[in-house]
Amino acid sequence: MRSLLLASLALIAALAPAAQAAPSIAEAQAHYMGNRVAQAESAFAEIADDPAASPRDRSASERALARIAWLIDDRADLARPHVARALATGTDLCLTRSLAVRIDPPSGPQALLAAAELAAACDDPQRADSYRVALLDLVLERMRSDPADAWVAAYGQVLAQVVPEGAQSQPALHHRLAYAVLDGDAVAALTAWRGYFWLEGRDMPPVFADRFDSEVFPQGLGPSASLAGRLRLVDLLIRSGFGHAAEAFATQQALAERAGDDPSWISAQTYFALRRDLTAAELAANRRMARGQDATDFIAAVRSLGQQASGETEPGPMLAALGERWGLYGSVGTTSGYPSLHLGHIVQDDRREVRGFGDAAPIRYIALEGMIANGFETWLWDGAAAAGGWASGGDTIIQIRPGYADGVPAAWTISRPSPAREEALANIARLEAQDTSGDPAAPHPSVPARLRLQGIDAVATAHPDRRGFLAAYWDAILGYSIFLHEGRHVLDQRLDPAPPADQFEYRAKLTELGYSPHVRLPLATILSGVTGADNPHAVGNRRVQEALTAWIEANPDEVAGYDPARPAVLQIDKLSDEQIRAVARALDPQGPDGRITVTAD
User: Which 8-state DSSP code applies to residue 516?
Assistant: First the structure.
C-alpha cells in the first residue's frame, strides 16, 4: 500500500531528538501517527499544561486532544474544553475552528452563515478556504436527508466566499458541482464537472463513455427535467464519486416517492444504504483499533454487506458485481497490520505496460475517486496523510486520486510569493530549530520540508506558467508514487510472488529515487515517513535516510556547501539530484538494470 503524505501537516509527524526531557509536538504527533494513542495523549497533555511551551504548541496539543476525544472516543463533551483552550491561545485559529465545526456542526442555515463569517479572521486565504470547505462538507452531509431551500442557499453563499485560487481546488470543485446540481444549474454543473476532472477538449473521462453525453446535466436538471433524466444524473453522480451530492439531489427531488420500483432507483437506494452501512461499520471498528481493541470481525462485516448489495458470495464475483452496478473497486483485508477496507469509484481504467529488468508486463491502471473507505490509518490520520494506492495481483496498479489532485494547486500556490509560501518557510524555520540530533535513524522533519520546497521550486522554474506547472507537477507525483513505485512492485511480484515486505517497499523507494526526474519530491515523501514504527514503509524510509547519511559522511568533499560542524543527516538536502539518484541505483539489487518505464497502450 502506497502512503501519500500531505506535507503541510505530515512534516511535523516525526520524533523529536531523544535527548529532550520534555515531549515535543513532533514526538507527540509521531505517537499518534503510529497509532500509539495513549502515549500521544500523555505527550499532548504534558505540552498543553506546560507554561513554558509556546502558544502554537499548546494550541496544537489542545487540538490533538480534542480530536482524540471526538474522533476516537466519540466524546464531544470532552473535546469542547480542549477546543476552548486552543482558541484561548490566539494562534492557528483557523485550524482550531475547522475542527470545532466538525465537533459541533451548525444547527441551521443562519448558524452556518454566522460560522462562515469567522473565516475573515483567518491568518491566510488558504486556511480560510480550508475552514469554509470544512463547513461545506458538513452541510452536504446534512443535505443528504434535508436539502431544504434555505440550506441550499446558505451552502451557495459560503461556497461563493471561497477565493478564486481556492475555487479551483478539488474540494471546492466538488462542492461547486454539488451546489449546481441542487440549484438546478446545468451549465455550472458541467463547468464544475470538467474542472474537477481537468478535462481539455472532452466532457468526460473515457470510463463514463456509456453513461455521459452533453445533455446529461440539462436533461437531469431544471423544472422540466424528466424522471428518467433525473435518475440518469443520479447514476452518473454515484459512479463518478459524488455520492453525497447524488443522495441530496435524490432527496430534494423526492425520487423515493416518484420513482417507486424503477430498477435504476432501486439500484441507487441500495448504493446509498451500502455506503451508510459500510461507513458506520468502519467507524466502529476504527475506534476499537485506535484503542488497541480487536476488530477482526470488521472484515466479515464488510463481506456480509457486500454480499447483500451484490448478491454474490465470493470475493471476485462480488467485486465484479459492485463494479458493474456502481463503478466500485477496492480491497478488503489487512493494511499495515490493521483490518482495512479501501473502496472507491473508478474514474480511469486503462491498459499500460511496465518494463524493467529485461521483463515487460501488461498492467491495468485504475484511478479511484469518491472513497467510501480508505483504510484505518487514513481515518486515524484525519487529513494529515492518506493511503495513495497499491499494486494488486502482479498486473494491476491502483491510484487513489483525491490526495494527489488536491495537492497540485496547493503546490502552485506555494511556488509563488504568497501567504502559503511564507507559512512554508516559517514552518521550515520552526522545524530547523527542533532538529539537533545527528541520529541517522531518527526523524528530522526540517530536511523533507526543505526538500519538498526545493522540488516545487524546481518544477516552477521549468514551468513558470500555471497550466504548465499543474501538468508537470501532476506528472511528477504520479510518476514516482504510482508508476515507478507500484510498477516496481509489479515487476518484483513477477520475480518473487512473496518477497519480504520490508525489502518490497525499500526496493520500490530506491526505484523512485533512481529514476524520478524531480527526485527531491519523492525523497521528501520518503524522509517525511521516517518514524519509530516498524512497518515495511517506515523501515524502508529509515534505510534510505541511513544510506544517504552514510554516503555524505564518506564523501563530505563532494557535497556542495557541506558544513562539518553539523550532522550529516541534516544536510541530505545539499546532495545534488544526480548524487541522490546515484546512491539509490548503487543500493538497488537490480543495479544499473533497475530502470522502470510505464507506457500507455
Answer: -
